[in-house]
Amino acid sequence: MNENKTVTHCEGECGCCGSVNLEFGPLEAGNNGAHYPFMCKNCGASGKAWYNIEYSKTIME
Questions:
Q1: What's the rounded Cα separation, in Å, for the pair 46 and 2?
Q2: 15 burial class (0-12, 13-18, 19+ CB within 10 angstroms)?
Q3: How confident is the model over 34-45, as pLDDT tens digits?
């Protein structure tokens, strides 16, 4: 059975084995944030590293 596992506070590390040897895909933006799909080159686990998007400023041209 394949269960989805949510792991928090492991930015830049594999949530399964703790390795930093990750291969990231391109940034994908959505309505509630953005994520990088990744695969761990150590154990083969894959997932998405989610980031919040916060408004910063408006620049008029």
A1: 12
A2: middle
A3: 999 999 999 999
Structure tokens at 43: 């154990």
Nearest CA to 49 out of 61, 60, 34, 59 is that of 34
What is the pTM for the complete model shown? 0.73
**How far, CA to CA in Å, does 31 sit from each of 12, 14, 51, 55?**
23, 25, 12, 13
Backbone angles phi, psi at 38, to 5 degrees: -145, 160
Dihedral sign from CA coordinates of 56, 34, 44, 2 = positive
Q: Rounded CA gap, 12 and 51, in Å?
A: 12
